[in-house]
Amino acid sequence: MARPLFQALPGTRDLLPPDTDRMRELVSRFAERAITAGFGLVVPPMFEDIGVFVRLGEASDVVSKELYDFEDKGGRHIALRPEQTASVCRIYAEARPTTPWKAWYAGPNFRYDKPQAGRYRQFDQVGAEVIGSHDPDVDVELIALAARFFRDIGLTRVRLLLNSLGDGADRPRYLDALRAHFESDVGALSEQSRLTLAKNPLRVLDSKRPQDLELVASAPVIVDYLSDDAGAAFERVQAGLTVLGVEFELAPRLVRGLDYYTRTTFEFAADGLESAQNAVGGGGRYDGLIADLGGPPDPGVGFALGVDRTLLACDAESAFSGPDTRIEVWIVATTGGFEATELADELRAHGIRTDRSFDGRSMKAQMKGADRSGASLALIVGADEAAAGMVSIRSLREQGAQQSLVPRSDLVTKVKEMLER
Ligand code: AMP
Fold it and tell me: Quick check: 252 and 221 in contact, CB under 8 A?
């Protein structure tokens, strides 16, 4: 076959059935969980003033290297959203809903990242945020929501990693200690990490470069620098998760990619995936982000889960096959009348997945279509059936099955009965 003129761009993928069915079902399972916990759906725009995202932290790769930004025809500097937390905070600052405000979302984000397995330039997330409460029980509720969701879809090899990054006042003390640690042997660090060190020593902890591993492993840990308040909150989060039986591992070096996190941070790692791309989700508190966006000084906490990567983790565990969307009934009509049109309409009204042939095909060609569709039943209406107000039903599952003749008025009942068998 000749190569088509255009193909999907690097880092983007065309999703087709059955992958799309799985994805839709995954989002709807998440929606159920979120709605059951009192979250309402928000749909932020896919692009914003670039300033909204720059607030996420200029030292993070997401902002410094990966933004899709451009000037629009009105001369505005715009960026496609790399994530949705900043937009949710911008909406909060603008709409000022009553607190605590619980919002969930689903949809694509854009990052100019190096495409590879599990890393795309357009990828989907589902997420949830709670704005306006300092209560660590909120953190517990959110983490449990994500953990329960992974369990709902049948993932068993997902670990929850938990850390606290402390408060505004704890950070500088820790950053000083961290900087001193790395500077004591700066020659041992990779060149990239030396550059990162100048901007934000915290991000050096994120480095996966082999050269950096030893210094990262011996670095001081933030939990030793927490204020009494932040320490007590972290204890409360751990106690709450324990009460719910949500297992976690303390991960003192977990800093995550974005700069805005304070206090609780967490990540979900799928052991079924390659370690470089094994994060299926993460989140934490961001107690200063809303004020940075010009809103009130209200705290927030939330998480985002990578939909594409979660599905890859499901593949690795042979979990979550997705819903059955195959056609159940195929209609074969040869009269040239409206039998197929009417029957399809009637069966569909009863929620039975039904399809038919078009273009006046022969009986034989229509039966081929029925076989190809994977339908369980074929309904056949020829001139005789039409004249008698009857329909023939043939099972396509059993070889050589007898055909039965059913009056139109009993059709739906009979079809349902046969599909249940
Ligand atoms: P982040 O917003 O960076 O905390 O990402 C949250 C989750 O989104 C990650 O744990 C991944 O599962 C997913 N994710 C982030 N970036 C990408 C990407 N480029 N491609 C696919 N999934 C991604």
Answer: yes
Residue of 62, 65, 112, 309 to mutate, ligand 1, most atoms within 8 A of C-beta:
309
| Mean pLDDT value across residues 356-361 | 94
Residue 165's nearest CA partner among 55, 275, 282 is 282
Q: Count structural domains, the chain.
A: 2
Does any ligand 1 atom lie closer than 6 A to the CB of residue 200?
no
Between CA 362 and CA 373 the distance in angstroms is 17
Crossing angle for the helix pair 19-36 and 136-152, to the nearest 10 degrees: 150
Q: For residue 221, what are the contacts with CB-CB under 8 A and spacing of at least 6?
A: 252, 253
Distance 199 CA to ligand 1 centre (A): 23
Name the pTM for this structure. Answer: 0.91
> Which residue's CA is minimally distant from atom 15 of ligand 1?
306
Residue 374 lies in a domain: yes
| DSSP H/E element including 239 | helix 228-244
Q: What residues make up the domain containing 26?
A: 19-167+226-316
Residue 191 has pLDDT above 70, yes or no: yes
360 in a structural domain: yes
For residue 279, report the distance from its CA to the centre of ligand 1, in Å: 7
- Give per-residue pLDDT as tens, 289-315: 899 888 999 999 999 999 999 999 999
Question: What would the pLDDT profile of 15-28 be if each residue is shown by its tens digit?
Answer: 999 999 999 999 99
Asked whether residue 295 falls in the same domain as residue 385, the answer is no
Considering the domain boundaries, does residue 209 fall inside one? no
- Same domain for 35 and 104, yes or no, is yes
- Any ligand 1 atom below 6 A from CB of 304: yes
281 lines ligand 1 (CB under 6 A): yes
CATH of the domain at 351: 3.40.50.800
Task: Identify whether residues 406 and 269 lie together within a single domain.
Answer: no
Please name the residue whose Cα sits nearest to atom 2 of ligand 1.
Answer: 83
Ligand 1 mean position to 12 CA, how many Å? 14
Residue 280 CA to ligand 1 center (angstroms) comes to 7
Q: pLDDT tens across 52-103, in order?
A: 999 877 767 888 899 999 999 999 999 999 999 999 999 999 999 999 999 9
pLDDT of residue 3: 86
